[in-house]
Design a protein that fits this description.
There is one protein chain. With 331 residues, the protein is α/β, with parallel strands linked by helices. The protein has two domains: 7-103 and 299-330, Rossmann fold (3-Layer(aba) Sandwich), CATH 3.40.50.720; 105-290, Rossmann fold (3-Layer(aba) Sandwich), CATH 3.40.50.720. 37% of the residues lie in helices and 13% in strands. A seven-stranded parallel sheet has the order 8-7-6-9-10-11-12, sandwiched between helices. Helix 1 (16-25) packs parallel to helix 13 (299-317) and helix 5 crosses helix 7. It binds 2-keto-D-gluconic acid. The site of 2-keto-D-gluconic acid has 9 residues, from loops.
Length: 331
């Protein structure tokens, strides 16, 4: 008799092709309604599953991990960031955690460039003018944005995504600066023509555009604190396609309101999916561009993420080490 299939509970709808394959391979429970699971539903899923496949919309905190049933051995996150999961608590309980790194790098870097361009060149405001009947014709002083070429871009977090942004930004004529936990090797630095800043404060004070690309961990929570944000120049733009929690959003909002910062492009928020009314007001005034966490939202990317989840689950269930294990040392 073959080995029993694992009970895999997926918390959200995934692309059809991924769900179909998972149903073939595993005893899979889908979430057809696609509503984010309530805490009670998540608790039930943790108690009964062999494998849980959550997403960023599921908060698997230490209390929930304590509710895990004896069968739960793997949490295969559909997503790169794992700040939605209490990793320490899971690992302590002997639950393996995996994620989907690498496959959303290019899409997220594209969206970061889109936000840089949108904010500096006022694309969203401009695109709204014609449908709103506000365009009376070309004028020399109307809808002026800021030039990108020649400006300094400071990347906070120079991992895969940060480097993919650097490659694109070079082609736009931006000068690349970065701050990272570890300095890149010299050959990579040279290839990216990137300048390393040991001091984040000093880098922030000298940049025209700052892009946040580090993961959210206990060490990076409010890394851009109220104190640090003050280093930014009043004509600078701040872009975030990482996690809202890395920036003190209230402090950022205040600075945008008072004109201490020229603008921001945000794809992520501190309390998703709720977005502060103050930020929405700033968006209406053309001060910020807000996107609903869509940095990695491409059909191709979602399929790649699903494939990674399948490989992680299957490899684990076959008794091998899954390729995308999240280790405590990574956090
Ligand atoms: C994903 C993301 O869509 O993978 C990540 O870390 O931020 C997103 O782009 C989301 O996490 C899916 O769970």
């Amino acid at each position: 008799m073959g080995k029993k299939k694992p009970l895999v509970i997926i918390t959200r709808r995934l692309p059809d092709r991924i769900e179909t394959r998972m149903c073939e391979l595993f005893d899979t429970r889908l979430n057809i309604e696609d509503a984010a699971m309530s805490r009670a539903k998540l608790t039930e899923a943790m108690a009964s599953a062999d494998v849980l496949v959550p997403t960023v919309t599921d908060r698997i905190d230490a209390d929930l991990v304590r509710e895990a049933g004896p069968n739960l051995k793997l949490i295969a996150n559909f997503g790169n960031g794992v700040d939605n999961i209490a990793i320490g608590a899971a690992l302590e309980r002997g639950i393996t955690v995996t994620n989907t790194p690498g496959v959303l790098t290019e899409d997220t870097a594209d969206m970061t460039m889109a936000l840089i361009l949108a904010v500096a060149r006022r694309i969203v405001e401009g695109a709204g003018a014609i449908p709103a009947n506000e365009w009376t014709g070309w004028a020399p002083t109307w809808m002026l944005g800021r030039r990108i070429t020649g400006k300094r871009l400071g990347i906070v977090g120079m991992g895969r995504i940060g480097q993919a942004i650097a490659r694109r930004a070079r082609a736009f004529g931006l000068q690349i600066h970065y701050h990272n936990r570890r300095r890149l090797s010299l050959p990579i630095e040279e290839k990216l023509e990137a300048t390393y800043w040991d001091s984040l404060d000093q880098m922030l004070a000298r940049m025209d555009i700052v892009s946040v690309n580090c993961p959210h961990t206990p060490a990076t929570y409010h890394l851009l604190s109220a104190r640090r944000l003050k280093y930014l120049r009043p004509d600078a733009f701040l872009i975030n396609t990482s996690r809202g929690e890395v920036i003190d959003e209230n402090a950022l909002t205040r600075m945008l309101e008072t004109g201490e910062l020229a603008g921001a492009g945000l794809d992520v928020f501190e309390h998703e999916p709720s977005v502060s009314p103050k930020l929405i007001k700033l968006a209406r005034a053309g001060k910020v561009t807000l996107l609903p966490h869509m940095g990695s939202a491409t059909s191709e990317g979602r399929l790649d993420m699903g494939e990674k989840v399948i490989v992680n689950v299957q490899t684990f269930w076959d008794g091998h080490r899954p390729p995308d294990r999240v280790l405590a040392a990574m956090l």
